[in-house]
Design brief:
Distance between the termini: 64 Å
Structural class: alpha+beta
CATH class of the largest domain: Mainly Alpha
Shape: elongated
Number of helices: 9
Number of domains: 2
Largest sheet: 5 strands, mixed, barrel
Number of strands: 5
Helix content: 40-55%
């Protein structure tokens, strides 16, 4: 027991993905404040009486007590403080939320300082939980902010935008995530910002996001 305690560590984070492993286990990818993106195994969590089943699914945010191995971690204990049920229970928000998780997983690295991305993701999911905010604007702000944090902004495209959009992108760049999702835009400015965000995305994002494909298929259903 002494060796286990010596090898344990505690992190705060949010579950980005959870995949079944074997008959009863799961492999989680967790974005943490202390160690960036990590992989952790939840042993026996798929058993019917597991106490930690609810904390081993995407969107779960809280404290994770871990045993450190050579290339991954094993979960000892979980205390969840936010399941983001307002997002997961809403069909209009949940797939956008999954996209936010997938984009965070794409951009973050293991053993890197990803605290700002974690803060951004947490606040973006809170924004999705707010019925008074426009999900389309929340998405654009999240996309642009996570790209800015990683230095992925195309200045050529930005210079072609109106002063309003250039100011908005500057505001997104300079504002802490806790105060980021607090503004609204006119319809023309929304349209222009959306066009800039799409162009910028096409330059820097090379991976096909499965959650984004699902989201876009729901927003643009095929017509016969």
């Amino acid at each position: 027991m002494g060796d286990i305690l010596d090898n344990s560590t505690a992190v705060t984070g949010i579950v980005l993905s959870a995949l079944p492993v074997g008959e009863y286990d799961k492999r989680l990818v967790i974005l943490t404040a202390q160690r960036g993106k990590i992989s952790a195994f939840a042993r026996g969590v798929r058993r019917s009486k597991s106490a930690y089943a609810a904390g081993c699914r995407p969107f779960a945010f809280g404290s994770f007590s871990l045993i450190e191995g050579r290339s991954s971690y094993t979960i000892r204990h979980i205390e969840i403080t936010n399941y983001f049920s307002e997002v997961t229970d809403d069909m209009n928000s949940v797939y956008l939320g999954y996209y936010f998780l997938e984009l965070a997983q794409y951009y973050t690295r293991e053993n890197a300082d990803e605290l700002e991305v974690l803060k951004l993701l947490y606040q973006a999911l809170r924004a999705l939980s707010n019925p008074n905010l426009d999900n389309a604007l929340v998405r654009m702000v999240y996309e642009l902010k996570i790209m800015i944090l990683n230095g992925d902004i195309n200045e050529y495209y930005l210079r072609q935008c109106s002063e309003v959009v250039r100011y908005t992108v500057g505001f997104i760049a300079d504002t802490p995530s806790e105060k980021l999702f607090t503004f609204k835009l006119s319809e023309p400015a929304m349209k222009e910002l959306s066009e800039f965000a799409a162009k910028n995305y096409s330059v820097y994002i090379t991976k096909t996001m499965h959650s984004l494909e699902v989201l876009e298929s729901m927003e643009n259903p095929a017509t016969e």
